[in-house]
Structures are given as structure tokens and as C-alpha cells.
Amino acid sequence: LGDYLSDYANRADVRRALNIPDHVQPWLECNDSINGNYSYQYEGSFWIYKIMKQYGYKMLFYSGDTDGAVPTYGTRRWISMLNWPVKKQWTPWYTDDNQVSGYIISYEGLDFATIHGVGHMAPQWKRRDVTKLFTNWIHNDP
Amino acid sequence: ARMQDLVLGLPDIDRLNADWYSGYLDASPTKHLHYVFVTSLTDPINDPVVLWFNGGPGCSSLLALFQEHGPYVIDDGEYYIKTNPEPWNKRANVLYLESPAGVGFSIAELISDYQHNDMSQSKDALAALLNWYKYFPEYLRNDLYISGESYGGIYTPYLAWQVHQHNQLVKVKKVKTKLNLKGFIVGNGATEWDVDISPSFPDVMYNFNLIPKSMLDTYKANDCVNYFNDLKPPTNSTVCNDTWNDINDLWDGLNWYDLFRQVVPGGGLLKQSASEEDRIRSVLIGNETKTYKAGYTFLEYAPWIKKHIPQRLLEQSSHPL
Questions:
Q1: Taking CB atoms and an 8 Å limit, are A68 and B58 in contact across chains?
Q2: Has the ipTM of the complex gone over 0.90?
Q3: B43-74 burial, b if ≥16 CB within 10 A, otherwise e?
Q4: pLDDT of chain B along its 321 residues, tens only?
Q5: SS3 for B214?
Q6: I need a surface site. Which of B13, B16, B277, B310 has the fewest CB within 10 A?
């Protein structure tokens, strides 16, 4: 009853299929040694949003709203710190069955969408909804 | 395309429904990042290219490929791979990059190559991306988006910024290849350490009715919001330690990655009810049985680290920044 993804990724036939040479280490979901040797930088990535907005890049931040790891509440706090003008007010968004998939607000340069009722791995746990959000957004569809 | 990287098939999958490429991209002469590129199911010639990062730091992007939004997925608690009816490559060409070196199947040749920070990770990712375009130049005209989740909230904007900087060099004719970056996407990502994640966690616990109001009030009254901050320490560390531990005792046993989702036995990340902090602590402590109460900042750890694992201090700056 191990984790099947690790079992699958470490199968010799899967490694061969993915062109992984024999000398490469076994696959781990998360490598604690890389994590332990990683130096977090205090400034985070907040500063980059301001630069990218200035140059007209599109930005989407989505947040599964039952996540405890990177909670929606914390995200909303730094977004409000940006103090950017709101283009479209907070409103529900829907997938094809008319169920509320979450809520969305558009600022100048940044769209922020919640995914209602799922957490950190929102693209997995609400596949249809997040894939629609993602696909529409990159194609500039409504 | 780089034909040596073509994936001819995947075990337990009848026939791939799109073109897959899997191989290595040099981030430096000694760092080689593994990638999987999956073409669009609709219009690969014109659909955008979307690069994806999982977080960690230290987690593999194959998590997303094989669990979250790739064409074939394994779901929580399931023991088979199946077709995903809603993959991100429905109308996008998706490039899954295992970064930084040492993550997943990505490799490095020198011990020092396994030490990373946000800037070095993004420089390596840019180098790998530029190499990817060398092998797949037909995608240079497609729109490019960078995306990621969790610690990808750092990786993603950093790489977008690196690509932007790179494109500025094209303007002054210092490099030739301009990347057609349109924007970036972050899901549940770390961004601003002073306000998201730990500093907002007690509020979240209270909003989900997991802790009493009195606990949140104590936390706020003692300025514990700076609990994890070495630069702006809280006014009363003892009260903050106790309150933080009380808060953690109350949510312990829930699924940290989804407070309403069951903990899946044997389910990879989901089997961990422990917080990220516990995980980092276990890395620092190694196999020793000594346990720490939650909530020590780096500076508070330092004396213990110095005594038990002094080699760690050689790898860390003494200044908290």
C-alpha cells in the first residue's frame, strides 16, 4: 500500500519510456535533501508582480479555498497590499453545469480566482473547473 | 523536435493521444534538468506553450503530470493510471520541468550544484528553457506562459522575470532569441512571507472553526504574527510558542493540504498530516529521535544546529536575510 505514483515512476519500463539513463537516481515526489539545502529568500516574489504589471504581462493567481498550506486568506492579504484598481468586482464563476466553481476578481494586470471547496492541489481535485479556468484564461476567452 | 527524446509509449497506457518528449536540458555544464513536454490535443502549432513547476522546494513537476493535470493520472488512493478527461494540454502545449537540479530525475554532477536559492533556481530554469527552445524552435512564435503551484509561487514569477530580463537584452542586441512571454499563472503559491502562509495561518484556523476565538486573540495581542520572522520578532516569544503549539495541537490530524479532505493512507503528500515545518525540522534533525515543539525560527534553531550538525552552518549565512 505504498504511494502508487512513486511505484509507477520508478518502474524500469517507465524510466526507459521516459528516456531516463540508468545512472540517474530513483524518483522522489519531494526531495527533502534539496529542500533542506535550499535557501529561502526573505523578499519572496511580491516585488515581481509590480514589475511585470508595468510591462503589461498577464497574471493569474488561483487559490483552492480550503487549503491549509497556502491559504486563500493569506493570498488575499498580499493582493490587497498591491492596492491595484479593480476592473471587475468579486463575482462567482461557473463551469458548464451552472455550479459555482469559485469567485473571481480582476485587478489591472492581475486576475485572482478562488476554486471553491478544494485545497492545495486544486487542478487535481476540481479538474474540469480548473482546466476550464486555465484554458479560457490563456486563450483570452471569457 | 529533438527526436531522441520522443516517448514512444507509456507502460499501462494503450496509445499516447499526443506527442510526448522526455529528456534533459542543460542548466549549466554540470546541471541537467529533466523535462517532459506534452503537445496540445487541439492545435499544437498555434496553442500556447505553458511551462509548469511544482513546489517544495524539492518537489517534482511529474506530480502535476501524473496526478494533477497531465493526460494520464493516478488519483489519491488509486493503484492504476488512467486517462484524464480534462488535461491542461487540451488546448496548450505543456512543458513539465523538474527543477532545481536534484529534484525528481534532474541531476547534477557537483555537490555544490545541489544548493539552491530563488535566484539561482530561476537562472537555471531560464538556461534550461532557452536550451529547450534550441531543440524545439518551432514553438518560438507561440505564446509562452510560466505556471506553478505552492513554492511555484516563487519559482514562477522569478522565471517570468528572468525571461523578461532576457528579452530586454534582445532589445539591446546582446542576445538573439526573444521568448514570446505573455504572462504567468500561480496556484496556491507562496508570495509574501510577511503575510501569507504562517502569518495568516491562525486566522485561517479560526475562520474554519478549528480554534477558539480566545486563542486567536492571544496570538494577536502578543504580536505573534511575526512569530516566524527573525527580523521582526514578536513581543512575547514564550506566549507565542505556547499559543502556536496550542493551535497546532488542534488542527493536527487534519489534511493540511485540504482542511475538508480526508487523509489518504499511503497517499503521498496527503498522508502527511504534519506541517511543512515538521518536515523541515525532520530534515535538520535527521534520524535522531529528539523532537521540537513547533515554531522555531532559524535563529532559534542555530544553537542546536551548531551542536549537533555543525556542517549545516557552513551552508547557511549567519545573517537571517
A1: no
A2: yes
A3: ebeebbbbbbbbbbbbbbbbbbbbbbbbbbbb
A4: 899 999 999 999 999 999 999 999 999 999 999 999 999 999 999 999 999 999 989 999 999 999 999 999 999 888 899 999 999 999 999 999 999 999 999 999 998 899 899 999 999 999 999 999 999 999 999 999 999 999 999 999 999 999 999 999 988 888 889 999 999 999 999 999 888 988 899 999 999 999 999 999 999 888 887 766 767 767 777 888 889 889 888 888 788 899 998 876 544 444 443 444 444 444 444 433 333 333 444 455 555 555 555 555 445 455 444
A5: helix
A6: B310
